[in-house]
Specification:
The structure is a single chain. With 326 residues, the protein is α/β, with parallel strands linked by helices. The chain folds into two domains: 2-216, Alpha-Beta Complex (Spore Coat Polysaccharide Biosynthesis Protein SpsA, Chain A), CATH 3.90.550; 232-318, Hexapeptide repeat proteins (UDP N-Acetylglucosamine Acyltransferase, domain 1, 3 Solenoid), CATH 2.160.10.10. It is 24% helix and 27% strand. The chain contains eight helices and 24 strands. It has helices spanning 15-26, 28-41, 102-110, 168-175, 184-193, 213-227, 234-239, 315-318, and strands spanning 2-5, 50-55, 69-72, 88-93, 96-98, 116-122, 130-134, 140-145, 151-153, 163-167, 198-204, 207-209, 247-248, 253-255, 258-260, 265-266, 271-273, 276-278, 283-284, 289-291, 294-295, 300-301, 306-308, 311-312. An eight-stranded mixed beta sheet has the order 3-2-1-4-10-6-11-9. A four-stranded parallel beta sheet has the order 13-16-19-22, with no helix packed on it. It is globular. The model is unreliable at 231-242 and 321-326 (pLDDT under 50).
Length: 326
């Protein structure tokens, strides 16, 4: 099985980044793209039985009918019967999306004899990357080029790694009668009390931080490009807008992968260039230009606004002097 765990307490995040991560998992239109992308992207060979766990206090913002979604307060409860018979199960940190080489990952897991393997994705270990060692004067002392994906031993951290692989029979024992703690330090303490062996490595992989604007935008872009056949194209989007309560002017132009929620109003001469997501109850006035951006629910964009590579969470964000907006 695969458990995607969104931590309720991440002290490394400032207020804006916390809001971005919550938006990614709870905004009705955006979260569908995020869920699909995470299930398919990170460790796809484990996607058959995936559970996404978010903090319980986010529940009022979430579509509770999503079958793969659960909430937690004091710990994540997993039924032993939900753990598959596969050799390994995985708990992934829901803040990050990774793109590990699946074949290389399984080679690593097959060769380890530990009970638990903590894996941190490291782009510096990807093939064709170069590392340079500089002198105190800033001159190049040495250069190393990697010709294949790499792997390095790493210390076991007190913070959740990108992925935590647990032998399935061990996980069944851990979840029997007790929840999984969202504190990694507490989880480690429980494992060590049971004398379980734990190893930690860094493995070659790209990483996207969904709590950052750039990371979330790039992740949504990649997810939308993969899903574009699942969503309405421009031609049939305009013929089915009445079903969602949308009102889109015939002179508005939508290009690329654009997902639109319910009760959206797009006035004359507005331009939306995908990948883009327009959430429910958004009003886009005359001449607005939106490029590769995500607009949250209940937002009104004034005539002539230009947005590029932005995530707009609330109406208050519209008036902020952010780059790419005028």
């Amino acid at each position: 099985m695969k458990l995607i765990l969104v931590l309720k307490n991440d002290d490394s995040l400032i207020k804006r980044n916390r809001a971005l991560l919550k938006f990614a998992y709870t905004a009705p239109v955006v979260s569908n793209v995020v869920f699909d992308g995470l299930i398919r992207c990170s460790c796809p060979s484990f996607e058959a039985n995936t559970l996404i766990a978010i903090p319980q206090q986010w529940l009022k913002n979430v579509d509770t009918h999503t079958p793969s979604l659960t909430t937690y307060h004091d710990g994540i409860r997993i039924k032993p019967d939900d753990v598959e018979a596969k050799a390994w199960s995985v708990i992934s940190n829901g803040r990050f999306a990774t793109t590990m080489d699946e074949r290389f990952l399984h080679q690593v897991l097959d060769r380890t004899d530990c009970d638990i393997m903590a894996i941190t994705a490291d782009p510096a270990l990807l093939a064709h990357r170069e590392k340079m060692l500089l002198t105190t004067k800033g001159c190049i002392a040495a250069c190393r080029r990697q010709y294949c994906v790499g792997l390095e031993a790493a210390p076991v951290s007190v913070n959740w790694p990108h992925h935590l692989f647990i032998k399935s029979h061990v996980l069944k024992t851990l979840v029997r009668g007790a929840p999984i703690s969202d504190s990694f330090a507490s989880f480690l303490q429980c494992c060590r009390a049971r004398k379980l062996s734990i190893n930690s490595v860094r493995i070659a992989s790209n990483v996207l931080d969904l709590a950052s604007q750039n990371g979330l935008l790039l992740f949504l872009k990649l997810s939308l490009e993969h899903q574009c056949q699942k969503y309405l194209s421009l031609g049939n989007l305009l013929t089915n807008t009445s079903n969602n309560g949308n009102k889109i002017s015939k002179t508005a132009r939508l290009q690329g992968e654009v997902i639109i929620g319910h009760n959206v109003i797009i006035d004359d001469d507005a331009v939306i260039a995908g990948p883009a997501i327009i959430s429910d109850n958004v009003s886009i006035k005359h001449g607005v230009v939106i490029n590769a951006s995500v607009i949250g629910a209940n937002i009104s964009l004034t005539a002539g606004s230009i947005l590029s590579n932005q995530v707009i969470l609330t109406q208050g964000d519209v008036d902020l002097p952010l780059p790419g907006r005028r």
